[in-house]
Amino acid sequence: MKQTKKPTTTPTTKSAKKSKAKSIAKSGSDTAMKSSAGSSSGTILIKSGAIHTASDSFRADLLVEHGKIVQIAAKIDTNFCHNAKVINAAGLDVFPGGIDVHTHFELPFMGAVSPDDFSSGTVAAACGGTTTIVDFVIPSRGQRITEAAKMWHNKADGKCAVDYGFHIALVEFNDQVAKDIPKVIADGVTSFKCFLAYKNALMVDDAQLLEILYHARENGALVSVHAENGDMLTFLMKHLLESGNTAPRFHSEAHPAIAEAEATHRAIVLASMAAAPLYIVHMSCNEALEEVKIARSRGQMVLAETCPQYLLLDDELYNQPGFEGAKWVMSPPLRHFSNQDPLWEGLRDGFVQTVATDHCSFNYATQKKMGKEKFTLIPNGIPGVGDRMNLLYTYGVCRGRFSPNQFAAITATNPARIFGMYPQKGTIAVGSDADLVFYDPKKKGKITDKNTLHNVDYSAYNNFELDGLPVLVLSRGVVVSKDQKFTGDTAHGRFLKRQPFTPSDWGFPEFEGF
Ligand code: DUC
Ligand code: ZN
Ligand code: ZN
Prior knowledge:
The protein is α/β, with parallel strands linked by helices. Helix content is about 30%, strand content about 20%. The protein has 13 helices and 20 strands. It has helices at about 30-35, 120-125, 145-155, 175-185, 205-220, 230-240, 250-255, 255-275, 285-295, 310, 340-350, 390-400, 405-420, and strands spanning about 20-25, 45-50, 55-65, 70-75, 85-90, 95, 100-105, 110, 110-115, 130-135, 165-170, 190-195, 220-225, 280, 300-305, 355, 435-445, 465-475, 480, 485. The strands form 3 sheets. Strands 1, 2, 3, 4, 5, 6, 17, 18, 19 and 20 form a 10-stranded mixed β-sheet that branches. It has an 8-stranded parallel β-sheet with strand order 7-10-11-12-13-14-15-16. The chain is globular. The protein binds dihydropyrimidine-2,4(1H,3H)-dione and zinc ion (2 copies). One zinc ion binds next to loops.
């Protein structure tokens, strides 16, 4: 990949003006930092940062009061805010706090429970510049979705370091689900996920998906799909195992791009018939992207997410010696590297709006190894919630693949808009939550198996170099991380009760109906 010069939006370092206000800046003392960690934010004055929103880049001061941004100006005089703590952001890039709309914390899945729970997962998020996560409630078949939502609240409430919301997976459709959809929406869960894969477990058929799209649309909710054709995968898994092909690399053969393209196409057609918006999660390949491009080009409300793993890792990793490839067994799997450029370009050109992680971590030594004899028994998923912002800053912004404004859009503004959190979240504006991440473009780092932010025994991005690091992260004005060390409180995060949508929220015209 070409090494491109970093865009010139980075401000020149200026030393902060002396003031009586207390400094919690780059040069601030640890004591001063501690005074704001994990507690109410009071008043904070952020001086001279290079602010990047989805639309603009400019040098400004920000004033934060009680967790909200209350003023943005070229210069805010410290004399007018005597008790403010001051953050000297000269030389730093300031972005809206990251929003990862695809996590699985403490998920019971394929015979294991993912070890990053809401505490460790949101601490990793905070340290990596993400200040909001949206996790998937996954009910069992026959369980009411209202009950499953309660279970997820029990796992998350009072245990999150940053703010959080939920989507609910609809693993079946019946009269009870139809009755419960408006209830969970009223409780602030305004998005659903349907699996077109995981046959006999989570998968819904076309008739169910159509009903779900219709009922969600009628109630102002968004449906997302895991787009892989479950029948094709089941057929391939059976035949591969019967032929003695049991190693991790056969997971990739059992999940070909054509199965993703087919399911993407089908979901798009069903959504079109239901006149419903559609969000495709974890899109991994060019074949699926082409389906999205065609749909969007004819004006259909189709939104797409990809993940850092599909932008930066490829299927060669399945050929690692021994069982090592199991570390990257996830669905969809890693693809041939030729898919990466189209996905980056899709992001740059607006066909793909978000990058989330699908964080679903499993320990290699104990949990991934459950599939030693059969790749179909390897718990699917990789860690990444703490890495997403850093990887996209380095390999997106610093490598010139997109601008700092596109970084803000992809990592925060678009997910906030799509999932009904904007403008409380996802931007730097007066009235918005003071969720901010400060990148020092001069700092360098490396992700390793040892320094991983996650509660598992390896990193999916071992040895990835980082240019620029998040030196400070604020959630509602509270310093939750400094130099990638957690300084917050795991009871700080609040549940985000989201509002139902209207099509104009996504910038699309009114539905035409059937
Ligand atoms: N894919 C994964 O790899 N893990 C969790 C669920 C999913 O869809
Ligand atoms: Zn999925
Ligand atoms: Zn997922």
